[in-house]
User: Fold these one by one.
Assistant:
Number 1:
Amino acid sequence: MTQQTAKTRPDDSGPTPGRSAAKVARRLQLIDATIRCIAKHGLSGTTIAKVSDLAGTSVGLANFHFDSKERLFEATLLHLAHEQRGIWQARAADPSLTPAERLLAIVESRFDSRICQRRKLAIWFAFWGDAGARVIYRRVVADLDDERLDATVAILTSLGAGAGQAMADPRSAILGMEAFYDGLWLNMLLYPDDFKRLACRDRAIGHLAALFPAVFSGGAADPLPTPLLDQEADDA
Amino acid sequence: MTQQTAKTRPDDSGPTPGRSAAKVARRLQLIDATIRCIAKHGLSGTTIAKVSDLAGTSVGLANFHFDSKERLFEATLLHLAHEQRGIWQARAADPSLTPAERLLAIVESRFDSRICQRRKLAIWFAFWGDAGARVIYRRVVADLDDERLDATVAILTSLGAGAGQAMADPRSAILGMEAFYDGLWLNMLLYPDDFKRLACRDRAIGHLAALFPAVFSGGAADPLPTPLLDQEADDA
DNA sequence: TGACTTATTGAATGCCTGTTCAGCGAATTT
DNA sequence: AAATTCGCTGAACAGGCATTCAATAAGTCA
């Protein structure tokens, strides 16, 4: 109602290439400020004034671009969700991958350096932890979560009998796997000294290999191969 | 400074038995209202006015008993943390338990029906998810968390060589276990239909048995024995 | 250039917040 | 019985909040 100009350009590319590009950049600038603000001050401490200050804009601009604070949060969540989707789909897209390798690729993408940044992890748990924000999360991200879940179930199903007794209920097995990754995420956020990204990735892979010994690392696998700390220079 | 009356009674039992008992009951009433309020409205949506309304008291009473909103939150957190400590310590106290059984008891206590209530899980993730609330959490609960961690490490160490290669770094192994339980908690909160309490408890036990096949279920264990849903009537 | 649309500003508005405090009834003490 | 403390109330207060909007700048088009 406020955005669309019915006369000049009815198509979705915006009024003008230059304008719409600048508009997207502005929105991204505000979304980035929102991410940093939530990470630093928490959801309850995130105000339009602080976000605007971090973005270096006036207080009115956020409402101009997103209509309301809640819509700004929706856009922020959607931005991160799409970033994640792009990453796991790119990793799993390679047609030369076997089903097992594709499953591994999706699991590893949850520990990609672009995703496992404290700043971004803070956003997910901010929304998961707040009763009011959870309904926003479901409205915005539920479909994308289901998409990844379905893709993973499909791969697991294609693994067939080689997957062992976890195949009795593939969906349930995958839900359990994802729960483990969620727990690793949480502990990366809470205790970054004890939970480094690469060590968590290895833990996740070890867990996967323990679930499907016949598929990964050829035969009886160790439940937790090398649960040690890594010292790679990660994000701040 | 505001509570202690230096003249009438210097001991810690309070001014009078009747009075102090009523006082404790009032504080508990406010803490319970706080729990329900955070669970329903989130941390950001929890106000003194709403808490007071849920407790059926005036707005001034919360500040009278807890001095500030932040201290009320601290008291709420401390209440839940002590409840948890009481439960796992009671379960693990039985001197007739073997080390392995005691380890199992501590793990199972995380899925006790008194602990795994949506209302209470919501509190933990509310504090974990908010950057501002995390510093409160650390200040209040860190010691109690460490206490359980240390107790678990001690048991694992006493298991000795029977624990397999997870013994290479007991602390790391236990941190990984706890991360999994955290993830199950999160999914119990987010998706209660897919993650029932007893099923999660069984998942946790299965994971434990996979980590220490020589100790639990005598010999090579299944990574995930029966990851199915249960249909016990739990809390609301 | 001039007409027009879009982007941005920041002061103003009204609501909601946590906290304070004077007052009061009841319990307790002297 | 009188004095005093304690528990509790709710109106009052000051500060912070999201949102609005008139004014203005910048960009686009005819």
Number 2:
Amino acid sequence: MTSLSKESRKAIRVVIAEDQGMVLGALAALLEIEGDISVVGRARNGQEALECVLTHKPDVFLTDIEMPRLTGLDVAAELKRRRVATRVVIVTTFARSGYLRRALDAGASGYLLKDHPAEQLADAVRRVHRGLRVIDPELATEAWGELDPLTDRERQVLRLAGDGKASGDIAAELGLSEGTVRNYLSEAISKLGAANRVEAARIARTKGWL
Amino acid sequence: MTSLSKESRKAIRVVIAEDQGMVLGALAALLEIEGDISVVGRARNGQEALECVLTHKPDVFLTDIEMPRLTGLDVAAELKRRRVATRVVIVTTFARSGYLRRALDAGASGYLLKDHPAEQLADAVRRVHRGLRVIDPELATEAWGELDPLTDRERQVLRLAGDGKASGDIAAELGLSEGTVRNYLSEAISKLGAANRVEAARIARTKGWL
DNA sequence: GCGCGCGCATGACAATTGTCATCCCACGGT
DNA sequence: ACCGTGGGATGACAATTGTCATGCGCGCGC
């Protein structure tokens, strides 16, 4: 279709970031077999990814969200701040509306789920390169749903509580009093309609709010 | 063994199972570019995988663990039960000793982590095809460490508790009394050296015991 | 300067959780 | 028939958790 005209002349230059080495290599292979896309850089964490994009200035930057050092969202935000022209596409396992919202805020042009067919990937890269937006339809609808009702404190506290830490420990860790921690937790629990701290943490996590 | 004499004549036939479509496609692409390997089937869940292996009788079956319907471990076990000649290689995100143990019990010939470099994959397929075992070294050592100390009941109860359910709910769900549930939980907590049910669940999960 | 809201803390109380000691009962040996 | 054992239940008690009402100080808007 599109690029048969000039074909190999102007390949789309891509950098990929993904912490699972096997998947990273595999995605790269997947794109390389498309004649019109060329993978010019790979990164296994956010830090590396940022540098890689900055030095290569690729057309498209494909990134996972959950990575060591910096998340894909952090990297996207940083690229936006620096007014880098590279278009960002998020490729993640998580269908969490909170993530999508943050991705868009961070200026991402695409948001795909690892779930859906591999064919979509090369296509998405081309579309985004042409200046279009590619948002997984499944998410796009639900996305403008509820926004995160939690305050920063509630988030912090909930995160720790979700790991099984006791109120006292959490208090110590955050330099608060135990009673206050329980208050925050109680607030979070009621905001999320949960029955206890653990359920609350689960809910927040699945929405991408934690 | 069979026919490596003729080289390209006889490509290694592989079936891949992986629930994330994108990753599935990517892994397939990765293997296809190796001249001596041919992907003859793909599956996105355990059920499908089992059928696919049964009908294609591939040389090697590459599978993720966590999938809908049946886990990769379940499929491996079933293949062993049926005395299918196909060699099984587990490819997973999780470096959990419990998983490795179960994989070996189920007759798997390989256990790789998605973390490590993509190059290893094709190599592992060849090695396994030749009749060798390929176990991620990182795991291999630690593997013959502790075995699961939990009883069936403790496992069930812990699973539910880890999701934030209250003792009463768990009791109802399993047809036990609330006190009994607390007893099991207490046992599990002490066996795992945890401070509470949530931490206990976390620990069990990271060991692959849950 | 006044009032408001927000972040944080207290204290008090009920519900849930974690720990133990004890008990019942269905079994599987011997 | 008789013990041993393991699954399950009770009851009692302490610690932790969840809920509320209330209090304090600080910054902000007006």
